[in-house]
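Chapter summary example.
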Amino acid sequence: MHPARTAPAGSGPGRLAPAHIALAALVAAVWGVNFVVIEIGLDHFPPLLFSALRFLVAALPAVFLVGRPKVAWKSIVGVGLVLGVAKFGLLFTGMDLGAPAGLSSLVLQVQAVFTALFAFAVLGERPGRRKLVGMAVALAGIGVAAVDEGAAGSVTGFALVIAAAACWGVSNVLTRKAAPPDALNFMVWVSTVPVLPLLALSLLLEGPERDLAALRGLDWTGVGVIVYVAWITTVFGFGAWGWLLRRHPASSVAPFSLLVPVFGMSSAALFLGEGVSPLRWCAAALLVGGVALTSFAPRRGAGGGTGRKPVVSDGPAAVSFPRPAREGRPV
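The structure predicted for these 331 residues follows.
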């Protein structure tokens, strides 16, 4: 048996060993706290430049260590543009315009709904009744969050975070079609794509003077922020998540992603002093519950008896899909 398929001692099918549970929770915490780190980073860098530096540091020197890409270049470029340029460009800009870190960590999880919608439109993945209910519940949570944010926050920033979630949904469908056998290898190569487009957009929209001022004023806090969002969030986070998915069913690992907004909102309250109103708690309950129904609803033909392991998208709260049979592309 291949060692990557061997279940850890003391764990049955679908059960995670205590160390693996701790690792999954750690990754969720890393991804949740990431929103606080982004908020701090936006005090040091313009959003598009910040995003470009994140991918530059994530790609180098890792791209020389992970080996050749294991999927087609068109898939790497497509996901790199949609995920790296569009999704993160919109997210960082939305937060820079005032979308709170904790709320952003929550609202971004609606990407699971967008993923299901785009998968139906593009791939013919018909959602079942339970998934449709989950999508409706999650969208109701977005509505409650919009009411809460509209009372005193940045409506534009909130809208850009939702747009970022939609772009994430598109990238999830592109990733599903690419079916990368190695999540870390894929994410490192994807990280090479957005650097130049984001730098060009930053120069055009944010201006060379602002970019140069940020780089000249680089301090240890700025360095630490870039290292965290690049190496800890991207390289460690996606590498560990992919490692867990190669050893356990996605249905056992993916639910831990629902902890991301929990860590995001609690860390934002702890470190940034963000308050959590009753409406926001209501929105959180609706969104997390809806995403859980949308992401983990059972699918006919997916799982037992097919011998195929579901593919999970490139991030937290991912929707899983059964992978089409394809030679030489093990999960």
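To summarize the output: Confidence is low (pLDDT under 50) at residues 1-13, 300-313, 317-331.
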